Amino acid sequence: MNTKIVSSRLQNITKQWVQLFMRNDIEFEMDDKHLLQKLAKIIELLPENEKLVLSLCHEKKLSFKQIGEVLGQTEAEASQTYERATQTIRQVWTLCVPQNK
Predict the structure, then answer these.
(1) Which residues contact residue 57 at a Cβ distance below 8 angstroms, ignoring those fewer than 6 apart?
(2) What b/e readout covers 73-83, taking b as 16+ CB neighbours within 10 angstroms?
(3) Best exposed site among 38, 48, 55, 90 by fewest CB in 10 Å?
(4) All domains of the chain, ordered by start, with CATH?
(5) Interatomic CA distance for residues 11 and 25, integer angstroms
(6) What's the farthest any 2 CA atoms get from each other in the chain?
(7) Is 57 helix (H, G, I), strand (E, B) or coil?
(8) pLDDT at 65 exceeding the cut of 80
């Protein structure tokens, strides 16, 4: 899949990911473009295969089994790739975005 297409698709679902990844750990307005831009930059740092799995999961709503079939992987490999990506996003987010406590 073309890198530009993946990047465009990721930007379209960034707000949804903010809610998913942060799970109310931080309070902010969804229209806070600064935070959305930070998340988009974090996602851009991920390896292409992790961005693709996230995109297939969130945008296309594919299961890990379906993602594995598309990518020639097992369901477990697709799930592990997804978990690796989300852990990275959470870790970098925690370092980059001040937490409200």
Answers:
(1) 64, 67, 82
(2) beeebbbebbe
(3) 48
(4) 3-96 (1.20.140.160)
(5) 21
(6) 43
(7) helix
(8) yes
